[in-house]
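User: Hey, my collaborator sent me this sequence without any context and asked if I could get a structure. I don't really work with proteins. Can you help?
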Amino acid sequence: MTKLQITLTDQEALALRYGASNLGYSLTRFVKFVLGQKALECNSEIPTFKMSKKTEKNVEEAIRDYKAGRTTSVDIDKLDEYFENDKKD
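Assistant: No problem. I've predicted the 3D structure and written it out in structure-token form, which is a compact way to encode the shape of the chain:
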């Protein structure tokens, strides 16, 4: 979660308070609402890419392996140790 602190001009605060009062919101809640709506708009602009058939097949196989219990849980803080041990096998 990100915490944000902003300074508004008197005119900005007045305009936002007006918008907030129309919805029955506090100024803070209204600003969070407006920012959230804008974030959703921006999210639609993030490009997405289709996986190749080979990658899709690998993902499906990995999911089947996971569900069948054929995977190993690895502590992210011990990745170097895991790969060192993997080389020895």
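In plain terms: The CA atoms of residues 5 and 63 lie 42 Å apart. You can pass these tokens on to your collaborator as they are.
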